[in-house]
Design a protein that fits this description.
The chain has about 290 residues and is an alpha/beta fold. It is built from eight helices and eleven strands. The strands form two sheets. It has a six-stranded parallel beta sheet, sandwiched between helices. A five-stranded mixed beta sheet has the order 2-1-5-3-4, covered by helices on one side. This is Isochorismatase domain-containing protein 1.
């Protein structure tokens, strides 16, 4: 998905604090809400997604517009705009239709491993299987030179990443309390990797940390691939509806084998045999994919 705010002149002051009332308009809908004082383009996009996620076709380009009293009509959101006072904004789909092909190349891909921690072991359905698949993905990432970012949710209380998962070579292993993996340190790490276009995301829980991470990433213009056989929840119903919702927003729900073979792309790839051996050696028959 890609959303673009057209460049314009000026912007509002970011001084102050608290929240500011904003009317969010999309198509025939208009919903009052609020954003923090000083919120910019990315937060506006996230709010649009939270309000209208089921109606927005993420395969299209959009422009965000601001209602300008002096013109009595909407104008393209100025570059550097921040919310400093009560205002009205709208999301306008452009005519250009994009197709999300979901192509993956090692040079433009990052793996996100989310909260695969010891205390989740007894509670998460098929946890042993997603550990096995997660380890296979991380081995594949090392073979192909793909950066790996790992988070641990409140490790003081929930423990570290399970011992079965080898984090050797991970670019970042970060504790968090926020459900989404999109922390300032993660954004800084992404900025250090040139040409990143796609994130391969897996871990727990599908309907909480995975879902919130995926939505934040597509709000930043990244393509997200969720590995269905490497993500789970305590409840299969929560997992199923989360994957359905995410697929409707343009996120690609796929499998570990599809990911790894797409990344090598050719039998003649120098790492093909090693990737093939990974797939043959560690494919669990859990029935998890029958519950997507």
């Amino acid at each position: 998905a890609e959303a673009a705010a057209a460049a314009g002149g000026g912007g509002c002051s970011a001084a102050g604090g608290g929240s500011v009332p904003v009317l969010f308009c999309f198509s025939v809908f208009a919903r009052p809400s609020s954003v923090p004082h000083g919120a910019g383009y990315e937060l506006l996009i996230q709010k649009f997604l939270s309000l209208y996620g089921d109606q927005i076709d993420m395969h299209r380009k959009f422009v965000v517009q601001l209602f300008a009293e002096e013109w009595s009509q909407y104008v393209d959101l100025p570059k550097g705009f921040v919310v400093s006072e009560r205002c009205k904004v709208r999301l306008v789909p452009l005519q250009v239709q994009m197709t999300t092909l979901g192509n993956l190349t090692p040079s433009s891909t990052v793996f996100f491993c989310c909260d695969m921690q010891e205390r989740f072991r007894p509670a998460i359905k098929y946890f042993g299987d997603i550990i096995s698949v997660g380890q296979r993905l991380l081995q594949g990432a090392r073979l192909l030179g793909i950066p790996v970012i790992v988070t641990e949710q409140y490790p003081k209380g929930l423990g570290s990443t399970v011992q079965e998962i080898d984090l050797t070579g991970a670019k970042l292993v970060l504790p968090k309390t926020k459900f989404s993996m999109v922390l300032p340190e993660v954004e800084a790490a992404l900025a250090e990797i040139p040409g990143v276009r796609s994130v391969v995301l897996f871990g727990v829980e599908t309907h909480v940390c995975i879902q919130q991470t995926a939505l934040e990433l597509i709000g930043r213009g990244l393509e997200v691939h969720i590995v269905a056989d490497a993500t789970s929840s305590r409840s299969m119903m929560d997992r199923m509806f989360a994957l359905e919702r995410l697929a409707r927003t343009g996120i690609i729900v796929t499998t570990s084998e599809a990911i790894l073979l797409q990344l090598v792309a050719d039998k003649e790839h120098p790492k093909f045999k090693e990737i093939q051996n990974l797939i043959k050696a560690s494919a669990p028959e859990s029935g998890l994919l029958s519950k997507v």
